[in-house]
Amino acid sequence: MLLPPAVIRYQITNGLAEVDEDAWFARLHPDVDFIQIREPALNARHLARIVRRAMTLGPAVLVNDRADVAIACGAAGVHLKSGSISPRQLSRPGLIISVACHHADDVKKAGGADFIVLAPIFQPLSKSADRQPLGLEALREIAAGCQIPIIALGGITEFNAIQCVEAGAKGVAGITLFAHPHTELRP
Hints:
This protein is an alpha/beta fold and 187 residues long. The chain has a single domain (8-174), classed as Aldolase class I (TIM Barrel). It is 27% helix and 19% strand. It has helices spanning 21-27, 44-54, 67-73, 87-90, 104-108, 135-144, 161-166, and strands spanning 8-12, 34-37, 60-64, 77-80, 96-101, 115-118, 150-152, 171-174. The protein has an 8-stranded parallel barrel with strand order 1-2-3-4-5-6-7-8. Strand 6 (115-118), helix 6 and strand 7 form a beta-alpha-beta unit. Helix 2 (44-54) crosses helix 3 (67-73). The longest helix is centred in the first third of the chain and has 11 residues, at 44-54. It is globular. 40% of the residues are buried.
């Protein structure tokens, strides 16, 4: 995938670390900027173990909605799910905070976040859609009125990723988009 070097590449894990941890780790791409560890089935001890292991790969690691685990492991940050605590309540020096947003009202409440992960832009590829896709025009409108960098998520492919960037996203995120080794990320 040929994206400009300044575009943020944000991989999200598939929630299957407990099924086959070695295969799960093999999917992690060392050439992304962020890896969001989204493994809701794991207990805190197992989650902490894989977070620490993922931290050795190079990309900044964000822990999905478990600030306690992120801080205990020394991870780069935390990703807050929609409806979680406010980024301002969690603000700590050096802790990166990304926030899930699904519409313009969510974006207005994201003050204090370092990144907004806006989804779904298109029909998701890795799971069934429980929300109507926003589309490129909504992405464009939200990005134009937002001071926080937006990462586009949901149905992002190597073919539509650049359209998201052209619409104002500072980066693209995905589960299948960045699954190593099938995706070439840098020119």
